[in-house]
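[job 4417] fold queue: 2 targets
>>> target A
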Amino acid sequence: MTTAFPQSITRLLDVRLPDRLAAPLVFDSPHSGTLYPPDFTPCQPERRFRRAEDMYVDDLFAQVPQLGFPLLACLFPRIYCDVNRAADDIAPEALADGEAMTLVPTAKALLGKGTVWTRTPPDGAPLYDRQLTAREVRRRIKRCWRPYHDALAVLLDAASAEAQCVYHVNLHSMQTRANPMHEDKLGSRRPDMVVSDRKGTTCRPEFTQAAREILQDLGFEVKVNDPFKGAEIVRVSGRPEDGRHSLQLEINRGLYMNEETYERLPQYEETKAKLTEFASLLGNWVASQG
């Protein structure tokens, strides 16, 4: 590729690039990281805190670079530092010295899943047996949060260099039913897929429509902005007035994994093949936009 793209960073970021950019389309998986840093000292067992991972999402889209599109994936876990939150999305009372930082917590932070998580799914049990300090949080933001956002920005800039526009899909997974740490109704069943554009503000409506129709044609049940509207990454990256079009995609974990044992289901490869086809067809649509 002729344009400068970001490089992978050991234990932090995995940047997977195509040999040739087929269309100005970029994918990123910010919550699939599984490399827990040495200073992550939870008081909960692994079987609990790993529920926060968007497990296998980076693998489900592993063929994207072969199709001609970049894929950025987090290697560190979201429960350690969640790059799909604003850097100040932390509840002050969650820190030993919260007054040392200027913080703007959202409803997610109040549930214990802000930029740095303090509670574990599914019921919100404390993640640590102590309060973290502002210094620890700042270090995570500097070492993890900032490099991820910088790398994604470079990828989007590079992909848009020739076409003067770029399309972006922010990849996630969701539990089959809402638990007490979710904002939708407790126990409510989620669809196969949720496509989100923050109520039409992060991309052209045609991009949302194309993604929905392709997924539906592949046999998936799809909802738009329900129950997820889109979070920080698409909010920052999606500027349709500047030719920057970002979508968030949530994939129901029940399509490919056992949510209790974390094992892949027999239909894992079938789901992966369909998602690869989704990426290919969406890329064709982007290429057709001229």
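>>> target B
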Amino acid sequence: MTRAVKSVLLAPPLARAGYLYATTVALLWGFTLSTGKVRRVDSLFVCEGMPKWAFSRGGSCVGGVYLTDTNTKPPVLEHEAVHRQQWKKYGMVFPVLYFLAGRNALTNRFEIEAGLEKGNYR
């Protein structure tokens, strides 16, 4: 990716728009499918009681929303709050960067940055 393309894709206004779009879609998904609480923990929306097919691993952060069934211990929410910050920084480019970083959490730079132990990866 050229420097010019990178600077446009990661420009704060575009990243913010992508973050807000992802958050809106995830909130709709969460409110529709959640059978548990939907609450706010600091700046992270947490949708509990989601069906297991509606997220990956123990839960998924999409924009500013964490989708999970019951995986809501404080260290996990701290881990997911870092993913929220990553979404804010990269916007809709984040899923692509995350995919390119690899599925193995132990070598994925975004999971490492969020804290492997807090994310239950160790």
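[job 4417] complete. Note on B: The first helix runs from residue 3 to 9.
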